[in-house]
Design brief:
Length: about 425
Amino acid sequence: MSNNTSKIVTNCQICGQTPLESILFLGYLPPAEDFHSIGERPKEEQSYPAEILYCKNCHLVQSGLIVNQTVIFPKSYAYISSNTKLLRDNFAELYGEVSSMFGLKQEDLVVDIGSNDGNLLSNFKDKAKVLGVTPEDIGKIAIERGIPTLLDYFTKEIAEKIKKEYGTAKIITATNAFAHIDNVNDLVESILEVLQDDGLFITESHYLLQLIKMNQFDSVYHEHLRHYSLHSLKYLLETHGLQIIHAKQIPTHAGSIRVYAARKDKYPVQDTVPALLDEEKKTILSKEALDDFRKRTMLAKLDLVALLRDIKKRGGRVYGIGAPFRGTTLIKYVGIDEGIVDCVLEVQSSPKINKYIPGTLIPILEESKLYEDQPEYALLFSWQITDELVQKLKERGFRGDFIVPLPTPRIIKNK
């Protein structure tokens, strides 16, 4: 990689096609994990262009730049999967679906790539053998919970190690991770190295259909190398002899897609696959749809600026709620600073507290400040779980109103 930190994407990450068409450019973003302590003086930092490109051949929407994994996923990676109820419920539902549709035996091995704190595997534990793979220190939490975890990146070498020491896997999962790993064709080959002949590969990724329909430009950051449609996943997996047998939309991350794949002709293809492929053809696989997305992104930025301008002119205070990585994209693209949003609040256990939002001087503080200060507005950066957040904040005593930035900026009155 150039300068050991990034490389420009010139050929499609799946099929190698060139040239690629630019869909959206959001400016330059710092790494989403680049938190600095409150009080630290601003200094020179690296930022990377945030652009997404489209491949007409395999329909993959992808990042225009690949940043080194050690920059994007440091050992101190702060994201904790189990903190989100929607994800906990989703993984419980996934386990139930796998069990009812395909069955599971005590001796079956389930491997989770990008296993984080073991949230997904906790549902399979005690019903099958489990093994997590994650490079971050957060994997130590899973180990403490009794979930064996390799603290490393999933590579060909790790795949060979798993096969040698644990055997082949009946199920391999990659949830919110399959779009984050470079050299995706090598990744699929490594998965096949470990997968049993009749095994299942299950992946969940943020879904391009919902990204475009719900105007989720804030999901564009350097952790997300690829924004999959079912068409692009089908092209990728079929290249390696895998067949998609089931696909469904799920609510996580404001709209994701769950896909089941197996070696060709091992299982019947369910009606869900052609149905979703047909929906994509009608809604997102056109130049017009992508151009409309770019236009709506620009208008959402202007609408949010106008909404915040009016609030600040009236002397209103705005506190942000939650510091997800997508929040940094929103803040930087819209041009929000500490004069517009006084602070961003996180739950007491968050390692982000007493840090600045990356690339800004907006402080991240403990959530109790919301109830002590009672600002007029709470801006929900984790807007994809608006209902959950609004209910929780009301129950805890917040009396102000809520700003939901996307898909279209709006205010929810606190009645």
